[in-house]
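protien #1 (seq + structre)
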Amino acid sequence: MNKGKNTNMENQTQTTTKTKEELLVHRVFFSVNPRDVNYVNPEQHALLLDVVEFLTPDNAQKYFVDFYQHKKPCCGRALYIYLTKILNDPRMAHLAHYRHNGRMIHVLEFSRRALASERRRNNDVFGRSVVIQVRLNGTEWVAVKMCQIMLCFMIDRISLFDHIEGFLDEISDVIERDEDAKRFKAPAAKLAKKGMVTPKSLDFYMSNEEDWRIRFDVESNSLKNETTSGIDFYLC
């Protein structure tokens, strides 16, 4: 008798609890057709399954609407400064940890671990341009870059937005000092004689002089798109 009751209870649990696949279909709009705008390949689909339980309507509102669109509780620039400059500055060590629900969270240690393990995977699989739609409620959806999900997932795991408002004044001071430094930075020294160094005056061993200029431009642009922190990838 007891065995039969337990079996019935297990069957009820299985029917009422959604699988990750069912949650994904309900919470995320995507396509497996390569010609569609919201196309995700098999690797991207697998990664979405890893984080689908995080993609609740409440989290979609909190992170993808309030944070990314409306800049609450802070803007992306403030978060970038916090994760790159403040966490790595020993003078601001008091901002690098806090107590949440009785547990001490060391943000620098956690963020380094998370970014080190996730960024390579995101570059290879999520990509910067892959856009899906996440459900806000029964009829509304919000467009999300898949790479942004991992940053928000990390923030949520350490409940950072429950504490960052207490840091915003000091973050604003750092941003202001950065702006002042840029404003008053001495101009770079310029050559007195323009054009004194040209492809013709140096031996580049190239049949086409313009080939140097083209390759130089490509390399310069690629450097501008990256930072040593890698956080720009998630805030793009």
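ok now protien #2
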Amino acid sequence: MRLYLLISLAASLALSTADAKLKVASLNTVLSDVAQNVGGDQVDVEWIIRPGIDPHAFQPSPSDIQKISTAAIVLASGKGLEGYLTKLEQSSGKTTRFIIVGDSIPSLKMAEGSASDHADHAHGEQDPHWWHSIKNVKLATNVIRDAFIAADPENAASYRANASAYQSRLDDLSKWVRHELALLPSDQRKLVTSHDAFQYFARENGFTIASIEGVSTSDQPTSRQVAELIEAVKKQGVKAIFLESAVNPKVVREITDETNARVGGELLADGLDGKRAPTYEDMIKTNVTTLMNGLK
């Protein structure tokens, strides 16, 4: 009887150990999706920022900080997107490791002559929206894979295999994007948006880009800025202006009324959307499809 109990206890402990997962907290929806693909069944990913939440305006709550402090790894975008990051690191437990993924990704500067609707996007600063380049997300996949292996070496083979499989899917996604955009002549690859967030996409896919200052409800452009943009849209023959969900319809209407451009649709700039794009692959496909429909 005693032997049976000991065997049962040993089996129970082994099962408990096998079921233990690497706890990961993520401050970016794209990183959350990548982490789940790389980690598979070996990780438990806590989405601190959920789809549809504006990461620029986000501030972690006490319950968020508690979740982060119990995680082995915290994934952050970097490049200035999380202004609260230093305080968060200081308030977290010493055993929590912060992985600033954007530190391993080449930066682009905020475009001169354009502005964003977020005050933290000053001209010349780093553009934090690096995930609009599929190549950058492949780099992020490597960073996350290596972080998981360092924290959980027993499952290294699984993390490597998962990362390799995901990167193959990203390669397929790149091929799909190139195939879709091949139908759009280079002289039509002009992207006017309500948010200065697509420079990485533009560089990777041969677009010229400009953003409308003040199209969000949190800002208002001057009459001169609107007039200059109207003139630029006319001069460059821009077919469509692309928006985000929170827009100032008055500014958009003024620009479209004075030009031949139309509203081309709504792009996903700051991360995943629970309905339209629950995964990174969905986000890229949604944006490219919206662009093609608006610019063709």
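The CA atoms of residues 42 and 61 lie 27 Å apart.
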